[in-house]
Amino acid sequence: MTLIYWCAWASSKWVFKNLFRCRVYNPERVSGSGSVIIAANHESYFDPPFIGSSLFRPLNYLARENIFSHWLSGPFFRRLNSVPVDRDGGGAKGLKIILDRLLNNSGIIIFPEGTRTFDGEMRSSQAGIGLAIIKSQAPVVPVRVWTFNAYNRNQLFPKPLMISVKFGKPLDFEHLRSKAKKCPRGELRGIYQEAAEMTMCAIKKLRPIKD
After folding, report:
1. What is the pTM of this model?
2. Which superfamily does CATH assign the domain made up of 3-205 to?
């Protein structure tokens, strides 16, 4: 972790624990080293720092490309291991950076829905996320967050309500990755979409744990 990343990680951990009584379930399902894709539903701006501060390893984050052009926010987000991508995360430039970081044994958080939910319900997945999954060869860990009631796109300020995150068991995409290597080019998009939908289905199956 860089100094800026560690400071952001530690402060996020403190805020979520003390102000939002956060609950974190099964973080041990994410390996402490090596490449990994963390695939999560997206309910609020809390999601990236909440997921990241729940693990004891640095992660890479997707961020809209336009924030990197500003003289202040650009350097800051780069030191937070952020990856510039277009809105759905499927741009060629962003994909290349994502794959390069995964090949260097890094972890990255991806939101298959592409954007935050409007009503608390999960949206359909984006095919571009499936492309990253198939080409990376990295294990994929489904993750579900419950942050909507505390902070969503309809709220100007967050509410001090409990939030939680649950990590699922790594998914096996070997059959789709093998199929993608042999199939005609015209069938690839269908494989990418299937990988994205499988991931989204695994996220939906994660249920909250009642303490």
Report:
1. 0.90
2. Glycerol-3-phosphate (1)-acyltransferase (3.40.1130.10)
All structural domains of the chain with their residue ranges:
3-205
What is the C-alpha R_g of the chain? 17
Closest to 165 in 3D by CA, of 87, 94, 109, 100: 109
Q: Is 76 exposed, middle or buried (0-12, 13-18, 19+ CB in 10 A)?
A: middle
Tokens of 179: 């199929």
Q: Following CA atoms 189, 195, 197, 202 in sequence, which dihedral angle do they give, to the nearest 10 degrees? A: 180
| Residue range 135-192, pLDDT digits in tens | 988 999 999 999 999 999 999 999 999 999 999 999 999 999 999 999 998 899 999 9
* DSSP classification of residue 44: S
